[in-house]
Automatic annotation (TrEMBL):
Keyword Membrane: yes
Species assigned in the record: Prunus persica (Peach)
GO biological process assignments: carotenoid biosynthetic process
Name of the protein in its database record: beta-carotene 3-hydroxylase
Location(s), subcellular: Plastid, Chloroplast membrane
EC number per UniProt: 1.14.15.24
Length: 294
């Protein structure tokens, strides 16, 4: 049997200035044992893997440089827009906090002094207190139904010229639609003042109605302006599951997917259920949840 041979060439000093001749050596194939062949295969695989890793690192570096250049181009415009939005949010936040503290402290003091001054009327103090509490809860719930009706029958009809600003991109910290909040303050102050300055069951009922309207207005501001439209941060109430549904339902109102439904706020999910739009509501809840986590 004829013996065959294999020529193995070694290259040394490939990166030196003077190119050297490769050293060739003929090795009989019988010398190449299975372990030697396996070693050569592993060596070739390691070299190939090293080349692939270096190529991947090079591609990643090029991609990072491209992304950096892209961000460099758009960063000034983005920063300017973010700075403007931040200024608008801070302006509205200051106004919201000041008005909230003012109204809350005034209402709390009014409740305290009204009943402390009238303790001498022991015969009527209990009915007044019960009437005040009942009207506080009743008027707060009633305001939701009033807001739903007014939203559909007035704001999206004869008062659309004012309400339209709420359905367009806002330019500045305030919008023309905010005037409706000021309008609702007038009857609340009138009822609170009359109930505070007078005694008896009827003034107590008026006082409770004013408190209910005030409570609804405060809750509406935090949920609608803060949670839904993100005009200021609202903290942990953003994690309340039902309020997340409320926010998603109000977004569906702005998207007109269900012909404007819901027109209410806190009972918005119930309105959507009545028109068979729960599937759209669940999709919107999932979309907002995914967006908040990204």
């Amino acid at each position: 049997m004829a013996a065959s041979s294999v020529t193995v060439t070694y290259n040394f000093g490939q990166k030196t200035l003077l190119a050297r001749k490769p050293i060739s050596k003929t090795i009989p194939s019988s010398v190449l044992t299975s372990s030697t062949a396996t070693y050569l295969k592993k060596k070739r695989w390691n070299v190939l893997r090293l080349v692939m890793v270096k190529k991947t690192e090079k591609d990643h570096k090029l991609q990072e440089e491209t992304n950096t250049e892209r961000w460099t181009v758009i960063t000034p415009r983005v920063l300017q827009r973010l700075e403007r939005k931040r200024s608008e949010r801070n302006t509205y936040l200051v106004a919201a906090v000041m008005s909230s503290l003012g109204v809350t402290s005034a209402a709390a003091m009014a409740v305290y002094y009204r009943f402390s001054w009238q303790t001498e009327f022991g015969e009527y103090i209990l009915p007044e207190m019960l009437g005040t509490f009942a009207l506080s809860v009743g008027s707060a719930v009633g305001m939701e139904f009033w807001a739903r009706w007014a939203h559909r029958a007035l704001w999206h009809a004869s008062l659309w010229d004012m309400h339209e600003s709420h359905h367009q991109p806002r330019d500045g910290p305030f919008e023309l639609n905010d005037i409706f909040a000021i309008i609702n303050v007038v009857p609340a102050i009138a009822l609170l003042s009359y109930g505070f300055l007078n005694t008896g069951l009827f003034p107590g009922l008026c006082f409770g109605a004013g408190l209910g309207i005030t409570t609804f207005g405060m809750a509406y501001m935090f949920v609608h302006d803060g949670l839904v439209h993100r005009r200021f941060p609202v903290g942990p109430i953003a994690d309340v599951p039902y309020l997340q549904k409320v926010a998603a339902a109000h977004y569906l109102h702005h998207s007109c997917i269900l012909n404007g439904v819901p027109y209410g706020l806190f009972l918005g999910p119930k309105e959507i259920e009545e028109v068979g739009g729960m599937e759209e509501l669940e999709k919107e809840v999932q979309r907002r949840t995914k967006k908040s986590k990204s």
